[in-house]
Amino acid sequence: MKIAVLPGDGIGTEIVAEAVKVLDVLDLKFETESALVGGAAYEAHGHPLPESTLKLAKEADAVLFGAVGDWKYDKLDRPLRPEQAILGLRKNLGLFANFRPAICYEELVGASSLKPELIAGLDILIIRELTGDIYFGQPRGRRVATDGHFPGAEEAFDTMRYSRPEIERIARVAFDAARKRSKRVTSVDKNNVLETSQLWKDVMLDVAKEYPDVELDHMLVDNAAMQLVKAPKKFDVVVTGNMFGDILSDEAAMLTGSIGMLPSASLNSSNQGLYEPSHGSAPDIAGKGVANPLATILSAAMMLRFSLNQPEAADRIESAVKQVLASGLRTGDIWSEGTKRVGTREMGDAVVAAITKKTITG
Ligand code: IPM
Ligand code: MN
To answer: Which residue, 351, 357, 354, 355, is CA-closest to 19?
Structure first.
């Protein structure tokens, strides 16, 4: 087994180092190999996703990814910006199924901006389609308008696009996931306006026939945005397209008050996956040793479960994280009165300690 480790930019290097440290104490049989990605790769090789990095990612069983991006690259041409690395990895590895859980940890209920009773026990799974939609649809570009409200004006356009098989496969991922949970799926679209969304809904209804034991409902994306803050616990598995999933998953993450806690997985059809924290590169706190490494550590747990077939090791990481939270250690992003503030490395050390203690006591 081989894990490609791609720390990226900003806090990426700090948090990934802690996740690798945690993986190391589990004493599992795999090798790791690191490579540059994002702005760091642009600086060294002139491209955010160099051939060598892509090759490593393709050949690995799983990719552990930190984060990419920094304001200082905002002026680069789009194909050279750090974000292109993650988009390129998704596209080239065919990582169409993005799992973004939003879980509210009991100890962190107070970190949310919502009332505790609305989010205590929250456990939503957003499944975002990741390789289609307006993110990748062609044609796209800039031109001079020949029609519309301002003929002759400069205009830009993107294409929202989905095919039936693309929707079918993400629908199956969502229904399969729901079977392991509460057997409910909410499909989110904008079928009152968009053709792609009408096809999305039609295909969801068709695939639902293969899953008579799972209940499917549909929600328009604007209403879903509202319901997520009004009554988030009504949701269980949410399946949606690339663009709506991008937005709703950030909203859902923030319900928990602690985006620094949330892992994610992006899988292809052979269960090869890329695992990354749901948060970004946070250039404002990079290099200060204060970032929360738990989302990345929990992403490593997802990696063990989904791609490396090591569910027990994944359980050990997850229960170690719970123990550390229960012991009152907090990085700045989840700190509250009465808890102990620690840095990135101390948090990683605490998880390692909780795991190794467990090994001794069985
Ligand atoms: C995410 C990010 C990316 C996306 C960006 C960095 C391209 O926001 O993973 O949600 O929009 O998908
Ligand atoms: Mn996003």
So the answer is: 351
